[in-house]
Write a structure and sequence with these properties.
two-stranded antiparallel sheet; flat; Rossmann fold; 6-stranded mixed beta sheet; 17 helices; 3 domains; 481 residues
């Protein structure tokens, strides 16, 4: 876990412990109901290794899918999808260990009862914790904001979002008073006339007493939101000390990453890009990603083939005289040009007049069937062939057209940095931001692509794929999160 998210570790530990407790109760209940109390001890003693593998698989799956972390929006569907994934992984692990070399055989009846009891307990407790308990002040993270200007006010509104779980309570906004020794004998002093209940008070203090003020407020998190860098003169050593003491000190860039899942272009420079390029994007990681792509496509092939046939029939019926597929040039990794395959959603000759342009909302060139296919991303199914060819990955930045890339690189800084990764069938920007049709949309989506480049991991890829499943089932959300 990144250092700037260390304040979530305590939460993850006790949620993981609670998850393990639910699993233990489920196993006890499953064995007792199926075999009776008299055989309970002997069964556990004989098959302890099998239950251990089950527990490891469940806890690891829940950790990877982010079930113990910060929730920007509580979603019962996401919770259900995460549960299905963790149970699938658990059953897969038990199946391998039961019928392969480890010989940890668990009866189907006992396993079904254990999983059923565990699932009911964990899903119920998770809903209770995130929906009710994490909205209460006793479990809220106490937040101080260093600054009182527009950036500080924006950060306050961001962390006090009603949908954020656990709740973040801003206890004070700290104004650094340069050139003054101190305003009182205390570490900080309340500024008269600026206290605002529910929004945190404004506290004035000298640069030398910032850390003491944060300790006095008993904060878990300190958001750095000063308007001018000069205000932090002499404060950096204190902020580093606070981090070692357990307070999570978040810079503006950290705030955007943790609470918005993006990297603002206004905060990006060559130094940041150099740091991001030496992170997780290694040749070994790319090879493992490639293997995972092929494995998942093979695993999904029966469903993909069935959906592909159905979509092809719909496309043909909607435009009987038009081709079912079409090819289009796109920019791939390191700027290489390749051709993607898609189901046709526009009428033939749609670009003869205006050439390569973004498709606006309610585009008249799109067929009646094409609108539904685009909403549920089904028009992109043929791109799985591009993935198999190694031109794309399942997850990555969206491949753009060469004509548009030439325009965007001139007006959007660092736009071509996204080309250092294989383009993806789906991606962080695609699930976090609605379909874009302007230069500003391209800038916003690049901020999400840069976040993905910085935080690339199999766990993040899995979350993106699970979220894409929601889009396939219910359509793309039009809300930016």
């Amino acid at each position: 876990m990144a250092a700037h998210r260390s304040y979530l570790q305590k939460q993850m530990i006790w949620l993981g412990a609670l998850d393990a407790l639910c699993l233990i109760v489920g196993v006890i209940a499953g064995v007792a109901i199926r075999l009776g109390p008299e055989e309970f001890i002997s069964h556990i003693d004989t098959y302890i290794s099998g239950w251990f593998y089950l527990a490891v698989a469940v806890l690891a799956s829940n950790y990877i899918t982010g079930s113990y972390g910060l929730e920007l929006r509580l979603s019962r569907f996401n919770m259900a999808v995460n549960w299905v994934f963790s149970m699938t992984m658990a059953i897969l692990v038990v199946s391998i260990t039961s019928y392969a070399w480890l010989n940890a055989i668990l009866g189907r009846g006992v396993l079904a009862l254990a999983v059923g009891v565990y699932s009911f307990l964990w899903l119920t407790l998770r809903l209770l914790i995130y929906h009710y308990l994490f909205r209460k002040d006793p479990l809220a993270y106490r937040v101080a904001i260093l600054g009182t200007g527009s950036r500080a006010k924006a950060d306050r509104a961001l962390v006090q979002d009603f949908d954020l779980r656990p709740k973040h309570k801003v206890v004070a906004m700290i104004q650094i008073e340069q050139g003054q020794k101190h305003l009182s004998s205390e570490p900080g002093v309340l500024s008269q006339g600026h206290s605002n209940a529910g929004e945190g008070s404004i506290i004035h203090c000298s640069p030398a007493h910032v850390a003491a003020t944060v300790r006095m407020l008993n904060c878990d998190v300190l958001l750095v939101a000063v308007e001018r860098e000069e205000e932090l003169a002499g404060v950096y050593p204190q902020m580093r000390r606070l981090r070692f003491e357990g307070v999570s000190v978040l810079s503006p860039l950290n705030v955007a990453e943790v609470y918005c899942g993006k990297v603002p272009l206004t905060l990006v420079d060559e130094h940041w890009l150099m740091h991001a390029s030496q992170g997780h994007v290694t040749p070994m990681a790319m090879r493992f990603k490639r293997i995972a792509d092929i494995f998942l496509i093979i695993l999904m092939s029966p469903v993909v083939i069935y959906l592909g046939v159905m979509v092809a029939l719909i496309v043909k019926l909607s435009e009987p005289r038009s081709p079912v597929f079409y090819m289009q040039e796109r920019v791939g990794r390191f700027g290489r040009i390749f051709k993607i395959f898609k189901f046709r959603t526009m009428r033939p000759g749609a670009e003869l007049k205006d050439g390569a342009v973004w498709s606006p909302v309610n585009d008249s060139r799109i067929t009646w069937a094409g609108r539904s296919l685009r909403k549920y991303r089904l028009d992109e199914l043929p791109q799985l062939w591009n993935v198999l060819k190694g031109e794309m990955s399942l997850v990555g930045p969206r491949p753009e057209r060469p004509e548009l890339v030439e325009k965007l690189e001139k007006v959007v800084p660092y736009y071509r940095e996204r080309e250092n990764l294989l383009p993806g069938l789906t991606g962080w920007a695609q699930i976090r931001y609605p379909y874009g049709a302007t230069i500003e949309d391209a800038r916003s989506k690049l901020e999400y692509d840069l976040y993905y480049l910085q935080n690339l991991s199999m766990a993040l890829d899995l979350r993106i794929l699970l979220r894409t499943l929601r889009i396939v089932l219910f359509g793309m959300e039009r809300v930016v999160r």
